[in-house]
Amino acid sequence: MPELPEVEIYRLYLESSSLHQPVEDIEVEDPKLLTTPFATLQEALKGRWFTGTERVGKNLFVFTDGPDHPEQPLILHMHFGMTGDLEYYHSSLDRPKYARIVFHFRNGFNLGFICPRKFERIGLIDDIPTYLKRKKIGKDGLIISLSELDSQIRRKKAFIKPVLMDQSTVAGLGNWIVDEVLFQARVHPEKRTENLTDDDIKRLHDAIQLVLTIAIRHEAQYRDFPIHFLIHVREWDNSPYDDVEAHKFCPRCGTRIAKSEVGGRTTYYCPNDQRL
DNA sequence: TTAGGTGTTTTGAC
DNA sequence: TGTCAAAACACCTA
């Protein structure tokens, strides 16, 4: 799932593959995927090229430049929903499945925006701060300070899990990362924010840094994450473990991992290590 | 008013 | 073939 670490990997991928190549044409299978009218997008980007990127939480921003109106900053925004991905390819024979939006570059290469579930979005924005304010997107998970996280959490009264998934609290955490953060910090997903101690929040802040840093270091390949991570209890398609039962127990204490629903999301936690 | 909670959207994998 | 998963947003309630 494209949460902060995946989007960071996509950002680096786009930077290493797709900069400084004029866009010849843009192909869009379904206009629902756009937050800007197709004609506007086409008109604005044809002949321009990508110059750099910026990421805030799960949002990827791509800066552009061009020969016609170089003084006008045009920024492309990408959100990868639940199944989004990027693939740079040359031959149409190599076109990836579900590449529903494709940027055809003048050099014959293409950047495919892959979106099997159509939860993904692309569009033009004027400037990043305005966009972040309008969408109520908070500080990025990698740079938020302990005091900023503390004040964000303290102003909300709800279970900690949905509060951490709220992009206005801290940007970039989705369902599995929040489960992992709560597990590493030993905080129950249904603990009310009013009942969190200062030490709980300190451990949550540490855990956010730990989980995001390790996920990026392993290029968001879940199977490569440390064995003491909770993520291995999830039934991934390509789990590295042959014994399906073996990873349904807490890697710290051996207690069977509990599965429940919190805030409408499937939630895994250790009932022994994470108590209310 | 608005924070917090719930439902909807969307499609492929199994 | 039906069920499940997910993020963001519309909508509802107190």
From TrEMBL:
Residues 243-275 form the FPG-type domain. Its cofactor is Zn(2+). Gene3D superfamilies: 1.10.8.50, MutM-like, N-terminal (3.20.190.10). It comes from the Bacteria. Keywords: DNA damage, DNA repair, DNA-binding, Glycosidase, Hydrolase, Lyase, Metal-binding, Multifunctional enzyme, Zinc, Zinc-finger. Residues 2-120 form the Formamidopyrimidine-DNA glycosylase catalytic domain. InterPro entries: FPG_cat, FPG_N, H2TH_FPG, Ribosomal_uS13-like_H2TH, Znf_DNA_glyclase/AP_lyase, Znf_FPG/IleRS. It catalyses: Hydrolysis of DNA containing ring-opened 7-methylguanine residues, releasing 2,6-diamino-4-hydroxy-5-(N-methyl)formamidopyrimidine. Belongs to the FPG family. This is Fpg/Nei family DNA glycosylase.
